[in-house]
Request: fold
Amino acid sequence: AQSVAQPEDQVNVAEGNPLTVKCTYSVSGNPYLFWYVQYPNRGLQFLLKYITGDNLVKGSYGFEAEFNKSQTSFHLKKPSALVSDSALYFCAVRPAGGNTPLVFGKGTRLSVIA
Amino acid sequence: GAGVSQSPSNKVTEKGKDVELRCDPISGHTALYWYRQSLGQGLEFLIYFQGNSAPDKSGLPSDRFSAERTGGSVSTLTIQRTQQEDSAVYLCASSLVAGDTQYFGPGTRLTVL
Reply:
């Protein structure tokens, strides 16, 4: 069965600094990988996904994520954090092929401090 | 176009009462999912529907929880004899097909007194 680990419950970063939110996964075969963001009192919003092709995926709001097959990771990154990036971030995975639902990590709370 | 909508946005009920939560998915999406998010917690998968196939109910926490999807569109999540531990935000999502990018509604915040 597939699973996702987000090893950090909380990440703090100063505004203007680069940020990284970590995600590792376990899946049979090739993965489809996703990142979602949840702002306070809102539903989840889709940020980006990796299906195939270039390992570096660019998404909304300046975020990007790098698929690393050997390390089974899909870390979310942004070169320069904004206070408005403060939110809860979820990584999700499913195996390529077939139509199974996404499996979500427990989420990482990002706080960007001015 | 319209996104996923959920109603009500907030529901306060008394322990032991039944509640119904509604989800309107994006038009044309064949897959629909229900999740539960407790305060400060991640997403707990409850159930999903894919087209006319039998729903995957593997995440439902007890037989007090049930869901249906009428006409392949609107879905209703029903919680019978609510308990205080049922208090959470209930999120609905839909996707074109199961496994595709999921689009989430704003959620229903359920409070059981």
